[in-house]
Write a structure and sequence with these properties.
It contains five helices and six strands, in the order ββαββαβαβαα. By secondary structure, it is α/β, with parallel strands linked by helices. Strands 1, 2, 3, 4, 5 and 6 form a six-stranded mixed sheet that branches. α4 crosses α5.
């Protein structure tokens, strides 16, 4: 009997810089610059930006966003895991989680996340965050490379759907991000 292929979900966040520093809802946050940006700056690790973050869980096979939220940029990625994860638990029956995997970068390397995933029978495929006596590492799971599905989603949202051209002030006006998601879904589905 052939084993059913694992359902793959990928989670990550992306920055949405603001149009104006007069935006009182936006906050300063950190992001990892692209390789090109890293070559142009002296600070190789992180870059600060003023704005919001878009948090997404996507189906890693179809690159379809299944859970989304937006918050000021000063919030850490793992703070939004439970909110997004509970959204997909409501959308999908638990039986669909049989043989499922959650693919994530080191920002989601937290004991509470591992416990919740194990409780629901989902295999965590999460990069290790190097802190204290641990070294940073990438999982050896063959499906980890499919985590890039969420990165491709962000790239298309910014370059094709216009997310990088945010011209609104205030988190209430961040409907622009949802409009970009709708445009993405229409174009790529």
């Amino acid at each position: 009997m052939k084993e059913r292929q694992a359902r793959l979900f990928a989670i990550d966040s992306t920055d949405i810089p603001v149009f104006s520093f007069k935006d009182k809802d936006a906050k300063f946050g950190h992001r990892t610059p692209s390789k090109k940006e890293q070559n142009l700056t002296k600070d190789k690790e992180k870059a600060n930006f003023y704005g919001y973050k878009l948090y997404v869980i996507t189906d890693a096979e179809t690159e379809f966003p299944v859970a989304v939220t937006i918050a000021p940029a000063n919030r850490h990625d793992k703070k939004f895991f439970h909110l997004l994860y509970n959204k997909i638990k409501q959308l999908f029956r638990i039986s669909l989680f049989d043989n499922a995997k959650l693919l994530a970068d080191a920002a989601y390397d937290a004991t509470g996340i591992y416990k919740e995933l194990h409780y629901d029978g989902i295999k965590p495929v999460i990069a290790t965050n190097g802190r204290r006596f641990r070294k940073s590492s990438v999982p050896k799971d063959k499906d980890y490379g499919k985590r890039w599905a969420v990165e491709r989603l962000f790239s298309r949202l910014k370059e094709v759907s216009g997310l990088a051209k945010n011209r609104f002030i205030g988190i209430g006006k961040m409907v622009h991000a949802y409009a970009c998601l709708i445009a993405y879904i229409i174009k790529y589905r």
